[in-house]
Amino acid sequence: MKNVCIKQKLIVTALAGAIMIPGRAITAKAAGENEDSDSPLPIAGIETVLTECYKSDVKDNINLYLVPTNEGEYLNRAFSNVSDFTYIRSAPDEYSDWTGKLYPDSTVTVLEYVGDWVKIQSGNAFGYVPETALYTGEQAQQRAKEFEKTKVTVTAGVLNVRSGQSTETQILTQVYAGETYLVTGEAVYGWYPVMVGETSGWVCGDYVDLKNELAYGESREEEERRLAEEAAAAARAAAGQAVVDFACQYIGYPYVWGGTSLTNGADCSGFVQAVYREFGISLPRTTWAMEGSGYGVSYADAKPGDLIVYSGHVGIYMGDGTIVNSRNAQTGIGISNVDTSKIVAVRRVL
């Protein structure tokens, strides 16, 4: 088939000479086939396709199919044009039930145009949104970069997050193999700016995989699950802060090897065990056993109340890079920086 130039490149999906136009079936005889044959095949001629487009409802949205691109990725891709969110509805009207939500950063696949409404799929969300809620065609291509999010996945066992683009700069925190973080700006000398929890820093590009991702809408069921998870996380956060507040009441009390008393003295694991006992949570007696308590999280995801386990030591994370712990006979129960020793594990027991 010869290429046909028409001011803009037409991107189509071809299979056995077929060109598909949504909501329209166009048929003709196969080239060289007897005119009396009753076996129809879709027309492959671009002029016929365009003529039929302008006869059909597709004519008002023809630029969606004529966006210049080498990959054809904007053939039926659009992006949300909303300030907060818009409902994805079960039918093309504002009175039908909603099946999901489209947010300001959402990418959609256009399935059909129905009057002033568009049938779309965005992730697992499926239904109709007002046409005004979308950027399509040339606008979609022009705004695509605004909707792409770049993320890095750590490939090294342990990777330092630094304050600048050099191994000579300060280590702010560490991330671990398989963890993924959002890139917050442009790379500088092969280093990428990332956000790790509340810490903004730089990671070396030699030890991460880079990937561009798009965000999608949310189905009603997904929103319900997310809200339930957020409520549970908020409850855990409140409980964790309560643990920290309770533990801090005993700052200044003595360290006693083998002790488990908050007032008469405790060692590191005895202190942690005694604090959590007040909240109805039973923990093992030793640091080594606590390493297997609850479930593990990365330090980047550590929350107040989590256990920070070292080799032979344990404390309760307070947030902002500090722990409350029973350190030694000289300092007793007090506050320490989390990076005074190498972290072995972070355990969440709430």
Describe this structure in words.
By secondary structure, the chain is an alpha+beta fold. It has 4 domains: 14-62, no CATH class; 77-135, SH3 type barrels (Roll), CATH 2.30.30.40; 150-214, SH3 Domains (SH3 type barrels), CATH 2.30.30; 220-348, Alpha-Beta Complex (endopeptidase fold (from Nostoc punctiforme)). It has 5 helices and 27 strands. The protein has helices at residues 46-55, 137-147, 220-248, 268-277, 287-290; strands at 14-15, 18-19, 27-28, 41-42, 77-80, 86-89, 98-102, 106-114, 117-122, 125-130, 134-135, 148-154, 158-162, 171-176, 180-182, 191-196, 199-204, 208-216, 218-219, 260-261, 265-266, 295-296, 307-310, 313-319, 322-326, 333-337, 345-348. The strands form 8 sheets. Strands 5, 8, 9, 10, 11, 12, 15 and 18 form an 8-stranded mixed beta sheet that branches. It has a 6-stranded antiparallel beta sheet with strand order 22-27-23-24-25-26. The chain has a 3-stranded antiparallel beta sheet with strand order 6-7-19. The longest helix is centred in the C-terminal third of the chain and has 29 residues, at 220-248. The radius of gyration is 30 Å and the shape is elongated. Mean pLDDT is 82; it is low at 1-71.
The portion of residues assigned to helices is 10-25%
- How many DSSP-defined strands? 27
Find the CATH topology of the largest domain.
endopeptidase fold (from Nostoc punctiforme)
Structural class, from secondary structure content? alpha+beta
**SS element count, helices:** 5
CATH architecture of the largest domain: Alpha-Beta Complex
Radius of gyration: 30 Å
CATH class value of the largest domain: Alpha Beta
Measured between the Cα atoms of the first and last residue, the distance is 65 Å
CATH superfamily of the largest domain: endopeptidase domain like (from Nostoc punctiforme)
Strand content: 25-35%
- What does the largest sheet look like? 8 strands, mixed
Report the mean per-residue pLDDT as an integer: 82
- Unreliable stretches covering 5 or more consecutive residues: 1-71
> What is the 3D shape?
elongated
**Count of discrete domains:** 4
